[in-house]
Amino acid sequence: GIQVADLRGERKTLVIELDEAVANTRLIAAAPDLLAAVKNILSVYADTTSTPNDINDALEAADVAVTKAEG
Hints:
Blueprint: E1 3-8, E2 13-17, H1 18-46, H2 52-70
Helix pairs in contact: 1-2
């Protein structure tokens, strides 16, 4: 693959492939959405007044966040 970084030092060598760098960028960009989705799911399940629609909405938001992370 294409290397986007090659950092060589006395004790360590780090090579990052382009595919991995892109995947990491997507995951970092999606992290706030993923965290919000998990918090929302936990809140919905903890709330005894949550309806099935509330649960479906929370799960749908989580699915959107995962799709964003996966690109």
